[in-house]
What does this fold into?
Amino acid sequence: MERRSALKNMGMAFGYAVATPTLLGLLQSCKDKPAYAEWTPSFLNQEQGYALAQTLDVILPKTDTPSATEMNVHVFIDSYMNEVLPEEQQDFVKLKMGNFFDKVLADSGKSSLMDVEATDIEPVLQTYLKKRTDEEETAHSEAISSYMDAIEQGGEATLNEDIASFSFANDLRNLATWAYKSSEYVGEEVLAYLPIPGEYIGCGDLNTLTGGKAWSL
It folds into this structure.
């Protein structure tokens, strides 16, 4: 697939979120890392890393299953942005992230991301994770595509702040969910796990076969 097509198909954000050996290696390397309060990101600065980790725990909070940061999703995403994304996508993610967290700071009245809490982040997430109409999604995609086209051709472009924040929130949720479900603990202990597939039952009832759990991939 051409690189431009890959960027567009993946939303021109975190790209490449498929089960490649590179990504699986990153997931493995993110095991047993410290909690985000003591964590030093490799790609983001300290404030961005702290805010990202808090945002991930709003998206995937601790319930009867671990939170996103307990599964080191924040470490994986930081490493992923640092080691996998090409430079123009790194810059694009930072742009969108900056818009999103500027909104969090503005709405909360706080001046530092180190001071924000889940209650500051949650309403902004709710705003940008709301379902959009087909027309709005098309307009957003076209705006992002035009922006990336201009940047890749060496030009300058601007992107509406709401569109940037909307793209960041949705792409972060998608990548976080993928990383969380791909972690070893969730894959083996939370989802239905069968390391050696056996009999194929095409029309079996999910509650009967797995106790209502989705399959671990």
